[in-house]
Structure formats: structure tokens, C-alpha cells
From TrEMBL:
UniProt key word Ribonucleoprotein: no
SMART domains with a match to the protein in the record: S1
Name this polypeptide is given: Ribonuclease E/G
Entries under InterPro entries matching the protein: NA-bd_OB-fold (IPR012340), RNA-bd_AU-1/RNase_E/G (IPR019307), RNase_E/G (IPR004659), S1_domain (IPR003029)
Protein keywords: Hydrolase, Magnesium, Metal-binding, RNA-binding
A GO-annotated cellular component: cytoplasm
Residue ranges occupied by any S1 motif domain in the UniProt entry: 34-107
Matches recorded under Pfam families: RNase_E_G (PF10150)
NCBIfam families: RNaseEG
């Protein structure tokens, strides 16, 4: 669900009637994420294996050497060693978070509905959510288009796409890359060569469309914006877009004010009467599972197992809902039976796999703490709402 509350747009995604994702982003032309610039190396710090690159006046970004893959230099260059003053193409891969600068990479990504062209690797990758037999078909189909300058990642949406739809997009992405390289040679430093879609439109593009039933908006401007995008990029999905005309506000219909407030609370109650405590620190996120008001009548270990299973499913949802990332530590209730611990980990991993953002379940530490990591891309919800988010009287769109 996406709602315009000037100067913000609220996005909410529902799966089977349950709210799974929620963002509240400023409606501004200042978005950096996904943009491609001609940057200039301002400083190189060998002891942290990174460089700092200026992409516009006083906007300094962090470039890790491990992300320095097949760089495209736009200034005269001798040798392969990165030097202060070098000008090269970089793409913003992570937003600024708290005191940390935005992160850039020389691995340029051009994203479509079915595939991503990437300059950091010449290999063909396929989404893990695509069946194995279909993976080999798609890989063989795309392989002839990869060359020494770029490769491709085939996205989940390609699972149901026709060969012609996928190949047409591959050709468009190659043309987009070639055009950018062509104009880069004639543009000055700090030029913005490619502006990424705004955050709310990125959500629309990245949602797995086969599982999307409806895109609903009560804002005419957002409706026209999405209609234009879908008609050009995803005409087969146009029929899912509808304009909500009822006088009762969409934000009230889906009770999003309460949802935003609940998504910021430390304590999350479970249906059983147990609860989670979610605390975010500078270095990591800690989630504790507590029995709370739960009053099971079975054996104690059965009670703990039941609470942990319920908690695992809700934790996976809360991670998506709040956009938690980085290192996440979960303290489940201790269980004595090894088979219970294994079933819990299997259930937790299954729930985490529903997340479109890469999430890795590391395992259980010697202190019986469950460790996982989630890729950092956008700001967590609590940082998006650092300034008051006016969600009381507006319109927007829902999907």
C-alpha cells in the first residue's frame, strides 16, 4: 500500500490480508539511491581498504575496494591503480544511515522487471526462487547476450515471462548501458547520468507481479504516474491498477496510522499472549522472545516450542515491516530437545525466505542466540520517521 501524505509517500504491501512491508519516504527530487554519477576520488584510505568519492558538491560517498569491479574511468588514466583525482562512473548502492555516508559501487546495475544488467560480473545469475529446471532454461536463453563488459541476473518475475518478453528487456538494458557509456565520455565530473526511479515506483517494479492482485490508489497524480510507467514497462499489469474514489480515506480504511505506530514500538504482542522486544542499537538489532501472558497447559518444553514457532514467523514479518538490516540477534526461549531446536530453525528459515531482500540465517551461537544478517539498502522505518510523518488526512495508493 502506498499513500501520498505531503511531503511523504507511504508504502504498504499486504500479503493474504497481512501487512508485510511499510515505508514512509520523503517525496523529494534529492533521492540518491540507484543514481549513477561521474564521481571524483577525493581520498584513499588503505588501512580500511576503501576510497571516498565525491559525486556532487560536498556529497562524499564510501567506496569499498571490494566494490571496485571493472571500473569505467572517464578521465585520462595510466595504470590500473585507483588514484586521488580519478574520475569514474559510480552508482549509489546504499543510502546514508545515521553518521555513515552513502555507499557507492563501480558495479553498475540497470534493473528491469525481468532482469538486471550488471557491469561487475560477466556471469549469468538466476533468482533462487525460480525452480531448477526453469533456471537452466533461462540461463541458456540469456547467456549469448553476456560479453566482456557485463553480465545479467534473471529476476523472479522472469519465471512466468515469455522468451520474447525477457529478450526484449535484455536488449533494452544493453542499449541503456551503451547509451550511458557514450554520453559519459562527453559529460563533466559530478554529472548525473542516470536517475533511478523514486522509492515508491521502485517498490512497484520490484514486487513479484504474478502474486499481486491489485494496485489501488486514491491519488489522481500517483494513478497517472503509475499508469504511465505500467503502460510503458509492464503493459500486462495495467489492468491491476485502479483509482479508489470512495470519500472514506484509504489510509483510514486500512488503519495505517495505527500500523505505523505499532511498527515503532519496542514490544510486539503475539496472539498467544507471549511478546517480542525489538531493540535497535548502533551496531546490531536484538530481538528477545518472552512468554508474557501465555498460559499453555501442556508440558513446559511443548509450551516453549509453541511460543518460539509463533515468534519465528512474527520476527520474520517484523524484520520486513521495519526494514531491519545488518546483524540481527534473536534470543528465543531455550529449549532442551534438539529436535525442537532443529524444527524451529527450519521454520524460521522458511519464513525468512519469503523476504525479497537477501537474508541469511547464520545459525545458533554457543550462547544459544540465533544470528542472521539482512542486506542493507534503504533506511529502516524508524529512521524514515525521525521527523514527524503526517499520516492523518491524506491520500495515496495501495497495492
Amino acid at each position: 500500500m502506498l499513500l501520498r501524505e505531503k511531503p511523504r509517500i507511504i508504502t504498504a504491501l499486504y500479503e493474504n490480508g497481512t501487512l508485510m512491508e511499510l515505508t514512509c519516504e520523503e517525496e523529494t527530487a534529492g533521492q540518491l539511491l540507484g543514481n549513477i554519477y561521474i564521481g571524483r576520488v577525493r581520498n584513499i584510505v588503505d588501512n580500511i581498504q576503501a576510497a571516498f568519492v565525491e559525486i556532487s558538491n560536498q556529497v562524499i560517498c564510501y567506496l569499498a575496494f571490494q566494490d571496485l569491479k571493472n571500473p569505467i574511468f572517464t578521465s585520462a588514466k595510466t595504470g590500473n591503480t585507483l588514484k586521488v583525482g580519478d574520475e569514474l562512473l559510480v552508482q549509489v548502492s546504499k543510502e546514508a544511515v545515521k553518521t555513515k555516508a552513502p555507499v557507492v559501487t563501480t558495479n553498475l546495475n540497470f534493473t528491469g522487471k525481468y532482469a538486471v544488467l550488471t557491469t561487475g560480473s560477466q556471469r549469468i545469475g538466476v533468482s533462487a526462487k525460480i525452480p531448477e529446471d526453469r533456471k537452466s532454461e533461462l540461463k541458456a536463453l540469456v547467456q549469448p547476450f553476456a560479453d566482456g563488459d557485463y553480465g545479467f541476473v534473471v529476476r523472479t518475475n522472469a519465471k512466468a515471462a515469455s522468451e520474447e518478453e525477457l529478450l526484449q528487456e535484455i536488449r533494452q538494458l544493453i542499449l541503456q548501458y551503451q547509451e550511458l557509456c557514450k554520453i559519459a565520455a562527453h559529460r563533466p565530473c559530478f554529472s548525473l547520468l542516470h536517475k533511478a526511479l523514486e522509492g515508491h515506483m521502485t517498490h512497484l517494479r520490484d514486487t513479484y507481479m504474478d502474486s499481486l492482485d491489485e494496485i489501488l490508489t486514491d491519488d489522481p497524480r500517483l494513478y497517472e504516474e503509475m499508469l504511465s510507467y505500467l503502460s510503458c514497462k509492464q503493459p500486462e499489469d495495467q489492468k491491476k491498477l485502479k483509482l479508489y474514489r470512495d470519500p472514506f480515506p484509504l489510509i483510514k480504511l486500512y488503519n495505517l496510522e495505527a500500523a505505523l505506530q505499532e511498527a515503532l514500538r519496542e514490544r510486539v504482542w503475539l496472539k498467544s499472549g507471549a511478546y517480542l522486544v525489538i531493540q535497535q542499537t548502533e551496531a546490531l538489532v536484538v530481538i528477545d522472545v518472552n512468554t508474557g501472558k501465555f498460559s499453555g497447559h501442556k508440558q513446559m518444553q511443548d509450551t516453549f516450542f509453541k511460543i518460539n514457532l509463533e515468534a519465528a514467523k512474527e520476527i520474520a514479518r517484523q524484520i520486513r515491516l521495519r526494514n531491519l538490516s545488518g546483524i540481527i540477534i534473536v534470543d528465543f526461549i531455550d529449549m532442551e530437545r534438539r529436535e525442537d531446536r532443529q524444527m524451529l530453525m527450519d521454520a524460521f528459515e522458511h519464513s525468512l525466505k519469503q523476504d525479497p531482500v537477501k537474508t541469511s540465517l547464520v545459525g545458533i551461537s554457543k550462547l544459544n542466540l540465533v544470528e542472521l544478517t539482512r542486506k542493507k539498502i534503504r533506511k529502516p522505518l524508524h529512521e524514515q520517521l525521525t521527523q514527524a510523518c503526517p499520516v492523518c488526512h491524506g491520500s495515496g495508493y495501495l497495492y
